[in-house]
Amino acid sequence: MLGLMQNQQLLISSLIEFADRHHGEAEVVSRRVEGDIHRYTYKQVAQRSRKVANALDKLNLAFSDRVATLAWNGYRHLELYFGVSGTGRVLHTLNPRLHPDQIVWIANHAEDQVLCFDMTFLPIIKAVHSRCTTIKHFIALCDADALPTDTGIPGLRSYEEWIGLQSSEYAWPQFDENSASSMCYTSGTTGNPKAALYSHRSTMLHAYAVAMPDVMCVSARDSILPVVPMFHVNAWGIPYTAAMTGAKLVFPGPAMDGKSIFDLIESEKVTYAAGVPTVWQMMLSHMQSNNLRFSTLKRTVIGGSACPPAMITAFNDLYGVEVLHAWGMTEMSPLGTLCTLKNKHLEMSEEEKMKVRLKQGRGIFGVDMKIVGDDGKELPWDGKAYGDLLVKGPWVIAEYYKGEAGSPLVDGWFPTGDVATIDPDGYMQITDRSKDVIKSGGEWISSIDVENIAMAHPAVAMAACIGMKHPKWDERPIIAVVKKPGAEVTREELIAFYEGKTAKWQIPDDVVFVDAIPLGATGKMQKIKLREVLRDYKLPGV
Amino acid sequence: MLGLMQNQQLLISSLIEFADRHHGEAEVVSRRVEGDIHRYTYKQVAQRSRKVANALDKLNLAFSDRVATLAWNGYRHLELYFGVSGTGRVLHTLNPRLHPDQIVWIANHAEDQVLCFDMTFLPIIKAVHSRCTTIKHFIALCDADALPTDTGIPGLRSYEEWIGLQSSEYAWPQFDENSASSMCYTSGTTGNPKAALYSHRSTMLHAYAVAMPDVMCVSARDSILPVVPMFHVNAWGIPYTAAMTGAKLVFPGPAMDGKSIFDLIESEKVTYAAGVPTVWQMMLSHMQSNNLRFSTLKRTVIGGSACPPAMITAFNDLYGVEVLHAWGMTEMSPLGTLCTLKNKHLEMSEEEKMKVRLKQGRGIFGVDMKIVGDDGKELPWDGKAYGDLLVKGPWVIAEYYKGEAGSPLVDGWFPTGDVATIDPDGYMQITDRSKDVIKSGGEWISSIDVENIAMAHPAVAMAACIGMKHPKWDERPIIAVVKKPGAEVTREELIAFYEGKTAKWQIPDDVVFVDAIPLGATGKMQKIKLREVLRDYKLPGV
Fold first, then answer.
1. How far apart are CA A278 and CA A96, in angstroms?
2. Orientation angle between helical segments A75-86 and A13-22, nearest 10 degrees
3. Nearest-CA distance from B136 to chain A in Å?
4. Most buried in the list A371, A496, B234, B521, measured by CB within 10 Å?
């Protein structure tokens, strides 16, 4: 027997319609590419999103056709979020930080029909448009009079001219909530990029979860600054949750420097900001140099990579801002865990609380997780056992777009590629990437742990631990080290440095001094490239 | 094109499994019928819910069979919430405050197969069990040795004996999230009771919404006391949201007096409580008489009927507790609006904030609302125009169980039976019940407004305004008045009392003095019965 409740599909268009009716007066403020501040309300977002919808319908796009963006965080991008998905097309947020060749490859793979881009990226589009074989319409996110006439991009139109003549009335179509709503390509370290194809349902459930007090805690009294880009897994879902709750939105545009971000937080009374550690590092430096203080900021969610303890302490002790560690993936919409405290932690000392805060956090309802050993069997949640982290839930992918790389699931669970522990209270901590962990004699050695010890040596500038094949132990760790300029340390000294700091069998078998460790575009060590550099290396005594 | 996300149905069983894994250590504390305090954890709730599931499976019930409860708020009731719905059966929470004849009628109408009842209600069940024609299994919520042998109820078993021998291992079945999960009958003032039949989907979406900061703001750091009964629209959904978030749950059992509730709030460090105004009135009296203060309570949600301003002020000014007005209906799972402030209100004076707090609140995402006039056309959100309030959304009913009373929807909207205004910020205020509003010359007169003026007269103990047929104006208001003992007021004096307090055409045409105004079981005025009393009444000059 079915329940007798209304059958209302969870659709992204309902978010902006709700914000229009219930929070029409709440503000959306953007620092534009032009440098000035643009300010309007959800009522106007809704009106202009409907104009976008009408404009898209006139382009004769099919349902589910991909409409791409190459844009910073800003109000026009927000209108596309609602306008594109609301009409049943798929919003494809391209990452402008990729190499132009990759952008072309991804746009062609996605079969994008329309590309809307910020003027910042006009040079890229000029260079590559002829190789984007599926794009029929190029739209520059600018006023009509800001559009150069000599771009060479066929049919290029300005966004304002494109939507300008459209009606702000529009009846959003109703359809299956499992329909695709948006997509985001992962910047995989191996092989071609693969895309997560989100649905309206997954996006909406994720939006409810993001609002929860133990996740981002978003209310109509908040002013939110998503520094995390809208091309990076939908800015962690913040634009959707903000419309759902009527929170004020503050967009930084391209200005990510410490001063610009700090000024925006102060002028727009931001209560809550979200981003990656590097941006906050720049802001904290700016604040320390200029002896500045926050007036309104209460919380910041930090994800993308682990947050250094010193940053958590600085935010908390110097500025009274609560730092929440988050963990997720493109394949997870992206949120999986957030590190909010439980009742039992509240009376702990700051030092004890810090131990909790350094973990990636506990599962959000909607994401289940488990850790498994080499045999695929689930490991205990004791905070010690570590294994491959798998997740499942309604906002986790079932497969990649176009079935690339086959079925990723293992018995219905998505393998994250991370190695983690989970403690008895459900707090998960990433200890390594699966591909980096060293499997020695049936035991696992965390490459990160080995690196952290080397990094503590005063002569070491950078260290990367990799596993080398070993006839008896399967793998044994070695550490590749870049010395600080003018500093000296020998192989023997460094190996002796490990003594007492870790179990004997976790001490690396060898030290290799290198001039540099290969880094990727986002600053992460590229161990695959390091392995290529060391392809002729032989373990001592083997 | 569909998104490529995991197809995971929203099922109630996933709540208790999540609480088990992620919040296994969080407490559930109950004051029992026996008077003592019972204390255990979500891990144990989960284990015993699985025992309930195994026990139910052994009764050879079909999918969707109804399992009824007649019980206070307590841990065994909570286990039934998860155990019954989790197996795909329908939890039917009977209201013990109804007349036994009504309970029998409802149990037969629902075709309940099992009835689990608190020992408080043994006398009722003894009296009526033979008339409950569909119930095959009677379970008393007590220990085996607490069960009397001479009840005359065939096959009566104790809950502890019933689940005691079952395994605490159970694989919850997976099924369509639109399947019925629970049901609740409305205490309609006319005709037979009608039931809302909730689905897993509606319950789960509602649970996400309840957790949001602008709704009940529930986190793992909360200790929640639902005084609102679990037989009253699932205690406003709190048991589900608590499991979803890992909040501590505190159940009052049958002890609703001021002292018991206050003591529980203090001893269990309750941060947040929810209930109807009468319970809080008793508690505030107890606190005032004994000069008591709260140590942990921060917020209380008040619904069921409008909260008197003096109560909001007492909580806020005397005790530093934020009072949140809520509005909903059995047909709405139940939450529709909650009165949390917006950013723009924060800098207002306390007096201005109070004006907002007296309203029923603003729409939660998931419930859309509108007000319409007699012609069915939508009225503006100006805080002045009032009309019939209609709602829609995924946790609003589409129809009643067994199609009773036909299709209630009007163009997809559910008519609430309330008359309301909505202001430009989206705050809704109930001005009357639709059936009580007086329609005079194309304009509407709020019976509540007319009554409130009469009630302000020092000689008036109680006043009820009803509309009487009028040949020219359709209807005109009259006011039925009960005088205070020993007080005097004439018809002319009372009508003169209205002058300057309301528009001339809203002043009642006549005053009828009566000895008493008929009241229902919950203390609400029964205007239908008043009409019967006045059936021979004629308007003056008609």
1. 18
2. 120
3. 20
4. B234
CA distances from A24 to A91, A132, A160, B454 (A): 24, 39, 22, 38
Answer whether B344's CB lies under 8 Å from A25's CB.
yes
| CB < 8 Å to A248, chain B | 343
> Sheet holding B66-70: strands in order across?
B157-158, B137-140, B112-117, B66-70, B90-93, B180-185, B195-199
Cβ-defined contact of A343 to B26 (cutoff 8 Å): yes
φ, ψ for residue B359 (rounded to 5)?
A: -75, 165
CB hemisphere CA count around A533 (13 angstroms): 16
Cβ–Cβ below 8 Å for A2 and B340:
no
Q: How many of the other CB atoms lie within 10 Å of CB of B174?
A: 12
CB–CB contact B213 A219 (8 Å) = yes
Distance CA A216, CA A301 (A): 7
Given B79, B160, B177, B331, the catalytic residue: B331
- Note down pLDDT in tens along chain A; length 542 residues: 999 999 999 999 999 999 999 999 999 999 999 899 999 999 999 999 999 999 999 999 999 999 999 999 999 999 999 999 999 999 999 999 888 999 999 999 999 999 999 999 999 999 999 999 999 999 999 999 999 988 999 999 999 999 999 999 999 999 999 999 999 998 655 568 899 999 999 999 999 999 999 999 999 999 999 999 999 999 999 999 999 999 999 999 999 999 999 999 999 999 999 998 888 988 999 999 999 999 999 999 998 777 778 888 889 999 999 999 999 999 999 999 999 999 889 899 988 999 999 999 999 999 999 999 989 999 999 999 989 999 999 999 999 999 998 999 999 999 999 999 999 999 999 988 888 888 888 778 888 889 888 988 999 888 999 999 988 888 999 999 999 899 999 999 999 999 988 888 899 999 999 999 888 765 678 888 898 889 889 898 87
Chain A CB contacts of B381 under 8 Å are: 21
Residue B134: active-site member: no
Q: Which of B23, B219, B426 is closest, CB to CB, to A340?
A: B219
Contacts of B423 (CB under 8 A, 6+ apart): B359, B381, B382, B383, B429
Full DSSP string of B391-447: EESTTSBSS-GGGTTS---BTTBEEEEEEEEE-TT-EEEEEEETTT-EEETTEEE-H
How far apart, in whole angstroms, are the C-alpha atoms of residue B82 and residue B68? 13
CB pairs under 8 A between A and B: 231
Instruction: Say whether the ipTM exceeds 0.85.
Output: yes
| A2:B202 CB<8 A | no
B444 catalytic per annotation: yes
Contacts of A15 in chain B (CB under 8 A): 365
**Residue of chain B minimizing CA distance to A407:** B4
DSSP letters of B4-56? Answer: -B------THHHHHHHHHHSTT-EEEEE-TTSSEEEEEHHHHHHHHHHHHHHH
Backbone angles phi, psi at A272, to 5 degrees: -155, 130
Cα–Cα distance between B465 and B455 in angstroms, integer? 11
Chain A residues touching B396 at Cβ < 8 A: 5-6
Look at A393 and B10 and tell me if their CB atoms are within 8 Å. Answer: no
Q: Detail the DSSP E strand segments found in B35-150.
A: 37-41, 66-70, 90-93, 112-117, 137-140
